[in-house]
Design brief:
With about 80 residues, the protein is mostly beta strands. Strands 2-1-3 form a 3-stranded antiparallel beta sheet, with no helix packed on it. Strand 1 and strand 2 form a beta hairpin.
């Protein structure tokens, strides 16, 4: 699985999770970084490298924060 945190133009952070076995595996990946002037809305993108069955689950933990972006403007 490949994931990235970006603004549509600039990749702020990325990660790769290698699962060589085609099974159902859940994993947690944290991304963070700094960007002074984003070109657009911040977004998380994910790609399942083993097939088309991958997903980012919004509320698997029951806490409603499983796929979340928190941004802070520092002036």
């Amino acid at each position: 699985t490949q994931v990235k945190l970006w603004d549509g133009t600039t990749v702020i952070a990325s990660a790769f999770f290698n699962d060589n076995v085609n099974t159902t595996v859940s994993t947690s990946i944290s991304l963070s970084g700094f960007l002074a002037s984003p070109a657009g809305n911040l977004r998380i993108s994910a790609r399942d490298t083993l097939g088309t069955g991958g997903s980012m689950v919004f509320n698997a933990s029951g806490n409603s924060k499983d796929c979340t972006i928190s941004a802070f403007r520092i002036v």
